[in-house]
Amino acid sequence: MDFLKKHYEKVLLGVVLLGLVVAVTFMLFKIGGDKQKLEDLRNSYIRKTAKTLTNLDLTMPEASLKRVGTLAMIDFTSTNRLFNPMAWVKTADGRLIPSGKTGPSSLIATNITALYLKLYFDSVSLAADNTPKYMLGVEKQNAKRVSDQQKRTTYVKMGEKLDTFKLVGVGGPPENPTNVVMESTETGDRVSVPKGEPPYKRVDGYQADLKYPPQPNRVMDKQRVGDTVNLNGEIYKIVAINPNEVVLKAQTNEKKWTIKAMSRTE
Hints:
Layout: H1 2-46, H2 59-69, E1 88-90, E2 96-98, E3 108-126, E4 132-140, E5 152-156, E6 161-162, E7 165-171, E8 179-184, E9 190-194, E10 200-211, E11 219-223, E12 228-231, E13 234-242, E14 245-250, E15 256-260, E16 264-265
C-alpha cells in the first residue's frame, strides 16, 4: 500500500499509456478494416460484370413506320358533307331525293336478252329450167327497223343472194340436200344451214330491260344500242350492251356509265 501511495501517479500514467497503446493498436486494425471495406465497395461498382444485352423489341416502332408509309384514303365525296354538301333534286312526282340517288348510277338493268341472227332452209324445188331452187329464210333480231327483224323467206338459186348472204354450196344431192352453205357478203364467213328445224343461229347483239327507281313505275324495256333514255332531264345514249352490262354515254359531257345486269336471258 505504501508503494501505491508513493507511486500512484506513475501507476496511473502507466495505465493511461497502456490504454493509449491499446487504442492506437485498435485504430490501426479498424482503419485497415475500413479501408478494405471501402476498397471492396469500390471494386463492386467499378468491376461489376455487365449483363449481356438482349435483342431490342422493335415491333411498336416498326408498326408505326408502316402506318406512316401507308397512304390514307379519305373519302371527301360520298361520306363527307362538310366540303361536299349534298344536293337534292325534285322528282316528277314532287318527291325530294339526294342527287346521288338519281341519274345513271340509279339505273337498273333488270334483264339482258340475246338477239340472234337465224338462217332457215325450209325446202327445195325445181325452177322452170329444171335447176334446183331453195326456200331460204333470214331473221335478223338485231336489225334497226322492226320490219327487218321478222323472218323473210324467198327462193334462192346457187350463187344468188338472200339479204347479206349468198348461196355457195349444198350438202348432198342438189335436188335433195341435207344442208346448204351460205357465205356472208360482209365478212366472207361461211355457215352451214341444216334443212328444217332448228335453224342455224348465232348471237348478233343484245337488248336490255331497264328500270329507274327514282321515278316509280318507270321501266324501259327492250332497249338497244343507239337508243336514248331521259333521266331527270339528262339524255343518255346506249353505246354498248354486253351479256352482263349496259354502257351509257351522257350527251352533255360524253361521260360513260356502266350498268351491271341483274339477270340475263338467252
